[in-house]
Specification:
Structural class: alpha+beta
Length: about 800
């Protein structure tokens, strides 16, 4: 009865059980779907990428529809280049999303993919003046990256799925790099670029223009998000002027940006380097060519690390010919407090024709004045004495340098969990009193009319048992007394140095508006205090994340204004699935319910796209420790959650559905082993969603939001009325007769509509045992799991 089949007795049983449950939840989820549609109907425009002929940018709606790639010329006229624009991206949240404009603005290269299964990929080149295709599209060009280094040269990399070239030679899967030359007659020629490539198929590459004509900076890394980077300047002219900046083996993350072309044809090269002894919060250096007789770049520090400040990204601002550029820094603190700083640079004179200058060297720059942009956004207060809030709550999701009014500007894209994407434009970065202007995005009044609630956000610093600090961001309905105990929904995403998403999430908006406190927990691995957790041992990192969760539970238990365990529901998604399984094994004393969507739960599965990020499968010690910390089976007899909901994306190309089913079946079998078959509650529930891939759509978000509201005992069912005030806890908790649902306090009493589910628990557990036993006998992955599956250590 293998769970990788689309139909077997255990799966069929859960589909019937889920259908009964969702039928009862439908009045609530239908109302939420309508509200979410209103909240996500606002158009957005992404920050533009300027060129000599105009600007290229993405545009669309907050619900993901209407995606376009647009060219706006210097006269303000627009041409839609691609619609719908759905690029092939390994991580879609990174901007720019799969397009690259040439320096002269005459050509754009972009990628295309199926929005659900992320296949059917291709790479195109088009003219911006006509929209006409240039050359033949590359079919099967998956997850490309690239950069123009001149108007006629484009360097790029794409993923090759591997296979046989001619029936004899096997081509390995992996990323490969190319140089595309654009000839005057309009033809293109692609050739392999092997210099800068590293050995092994598990290699990704990014590119930026190099510091001298005919050069490119090749950036290599193991995973798309925040893994150590190798940085090399490659000389495409064959003159031998290339050099190394840093190697992947050094275990340091880096970001590279180049300045404008100067009079002698060179560019300044800047490096954001995360190499501090403790937090690795980021410092900015200028990169120069190696001193005579050496092969490594010369690095000069411009901006040192600041305690608490994590420099997420930076851009170089061109302030005009003959003038020294400036830097724009996207700064984050405690995981979700953000701001943008402008740093003026002062330059030494560069000697024209100097040999060092012609290789991208010349005179140095030093940091001058630094000031913070007065960016509008969601206010946040500190609930911890001594902790000062300096920025706004949310996320700087993208930032690009512009010409502004001629003295250098910057486009800033900002959002928060209850503020969809807003594009702010600062026209003058020399005037520290200049205010960024809202270009595209909803105003506060428009948000209230669409049903997006006002919220209060507070920051909480919590000490862990091992002497570290973890951060909580608590979102509550505005106007509710701070000591009024609300149920809580808590989430964590302790991977990739990203932390829980702090940009717009309609799920958060409707859950908070239902009278629930939503807690974003910045557990270890999310990079709240820097990237010091990035090179840490993988299993050790998961153990620390679990310690953080436990510390957060204890803190919330003693905090006025929130309910304790009886009112706490956890929710995890994607890579957070490893922490979800760990919490189910070791921390169920801290929560009552869990909703786990499309979780990554099997780091030994070769079908996963990032198993090497979660566990060093080649290291027996880390592999064993990884399974002890958060393995596939709950093996300890402990208090189980009252309700555990697993959400499967049947068309998810990133998380194999059978991995989630296997874990759900294992959990259910362990539940029966330790607690018997007489559970007076629905227990484990598995919901399968079909309409989108890894990233759920509006109706799917409504179902998960409804589940969270339901499990928290809050049931707003009346249609939203414009400009109404957020629901207070008293009005949010409606009667079961009105909502068709039982309040959370009575879930364990097994309402009559759940009788079939409770009565069927014996059958469910029997099927779960059968499914798990079959999997352990037949699956190679679980043969490995059996090898390391000794009883878990308590954390």
């Amino acid at each position: 009865m293998a769970v990788d089949r689309e139909s077997n007795p255990w799966i069929d049983h859960h589909r019937r059980k889920a259908a009964r449950f969702l039928d009862r939840l439908q009045p609530l989820t239908d109302a939420l779907a309508a509200r979410i549609a209103a909240m996500t109907g606002f158009p957005f425009e992404r920050p533009g990428f300027p060129s000599a002929a105009g600007t290229v940018f993405g545009r669309g709606n907050a619900d993901g529809t209407g995606a376009q790639l647009v060219f706006r010329d210097t006269a303000g006229d627009e041409r839609i280049l691609v619609e719908p624009f759905i690029p092939s991206m390994e991580y879609p949240g990174i901007y720019p999303n799969g397009f690259w404009v040439s320096p002269d603005g005459l050509h754009v290269v972009y990628s295309d993919a199926n929005p659900i299964h992320e296949g059917d990929t291709s790479l195109h080149m088009v003219r911006t003046d006509t929209g006409a295709e240039v050359g033949t599209p590359l079919v099967g060009a998956s997850r490309p990256s690239g950069s123009w280094i001149s108007p006629d040269t484009f360097v790029y990399s794409l993923y090759d799925v591997g296979g046989r070239d001619d029936g004899r030679h096997v081509r390995a899967a992996g990323w490969t790099t190319y140089v595309r030359r654009l000839h005057q007659d309009g033809t293109v020629h692609d050739e392999r670029l092997t210099e800068g490539e590293r050995e092994g198929g598990n290699s990704r590459y990014d590119f930026v223009p190099g510091p001298f004509a005919g050069s490119v900076v090749v950036i290599s890394y193991s995973h798309i998000i925040n893994t150590p980077t190798g940085i090399h300047v490659v000389d495409l002219t064959g003159s031998g002027r290339g050099y190394a900046v840093q190697e992947e083996s050094e275990g340091v993350l880096g970001r590279v940006r180049v300045g404008p072309v100067e009079a002698d044809g060179t560019r300044r090269l800047f490096l954001l380097k995360f190499d501090g002894d403790r937090t690795r919060s980021g410092r900015i250096l200028e990169v120069g060519p190696p001193p005579p007789g050496e092969s490594r770049a010369r690095l000069t520090e411009l901006i040192p690390e600041r305690p608490g400040d994590v420099i997420r990204e930076f851009e170089v601002i061109d302030r005009g010919a003959g003038r020294t550029p400036a830097l724009a820094l996207s700064v984050r603190r405690n995981g979700a407090e953000v701001r943008v700083d402008i740093v003026d640079l002062k330059s030494d004179d560069r000697t024209p024709g100097d040999a060092a200058a012609s290789a991208g060297g010349g005179g140095h720059v030093t940091a001058g004045d630094r000031w913070t942009v007065d960016l509008p956004g969601q206010e946040m207060t500190s609930a911890t004495p001594g902790v000062v809030v300096e920025g706004k709550f949310g996320a700087i999701t993208a930032m690009t340098a512009t010409a502004g009014d001629g003295r250098g500007g910057v486009d800033i894209e900002y959002s928060s969990p209850t503020i969809p994407l807003r594009l702010y434009r600062l026209h003058n970065t020399e005037d520290r009193h200049a205010e960024p202007q809202l270009v595209v995005g909803p105003t506060d009044a428009q948000l209230r009319e669409a049903g997006v609630p006002e919220i209060d956000v507070s920051l909480h610093r919590v000490a862990t048992d091992d002497g570290r600090t973890t951060w909580l961001h608590m979102l509550r309905p505005a106007g509710v007394a701070p000591d009024e105990p609300l149920p809580t929904v808590e989430t964590a995403y302790p991977y990739y140095d990203l932390g829980p998403t702090a940009n717009f999430r309609p799920q958060v908006a409707v859950v908070v508006d239902a009278g629930i406190a939503y807690v974003n927990h910045q557990a270890y691995g999310g990079g709240a205090d820097g990237r010091g957790d990035q090179p840490a041992a993988k299993a050790d990192g998961r153990a620390k994340a679990l310690l953080d969760l436990k510390a957060g539970f204890r803190y919330l238990d003693g905090l006025p204004g929130v309910q304790g365990r009886a009112g706490r529901t956890l929710t995890f998604a994607s890579a957070g699935g490893m922490t979800a399984v760990g919490a189910l094994r070791h921390a169920t004393a801290g929560f009552r319910n869990a909703v786990i969507s499309r979780p990554y739960v099997n780091p030994l599965s070769l079908e996963g796209s990032s198993h090497d990020v979660h566990m060093d499968v080649g290291d027996p010690a880390d592999r064993r420790a990884g399974y002890e910390a958060s393995g596939p089976l709950p093996v300890e007899p402990h208090r189980m959650p009252e309700n555990t909901v697993w959400v499967v994306g049947r068309s998810d190309p990133r998380i194999p559905p059978h991995d989630v089913r296997r874990t759900a079946a294992a959990f259910e079998a362990a539940e029966a082993e330790f607690h018997g078959d007489k559970l007076k509650r629905p227990g484990t529930l598995m919901i399968e969603q079909d309409s989108s891939g890894h990233f759920p759509g509006g109706k799917e978000v409504a179902v998960m939001s409804g589940m969270l509201i339901h499990l928290s005992g809050r049931h707003p069912v009346t249609p939203h009325e414009p400009n109404r005030t957020p629901l207070s806890p008293a009005t949010a908790t409606t009667t079961a007769a009105t909502a068709g649902l039982a309040p959370m306090a009575r879930l364990h009493e097994a309402p009559s509509t759940w009788a079939a589910d409770v009565k069927g628990n014996s059958k469910t557990h029997a099927l779960a045992r059968q499914a798990v036993n079959t999997e352990i006998r037949t699956t190679q992955t679980h043969a490995v799991a059996r090898e390391v599956g000794r009883p878990a250590r308590r954390i």
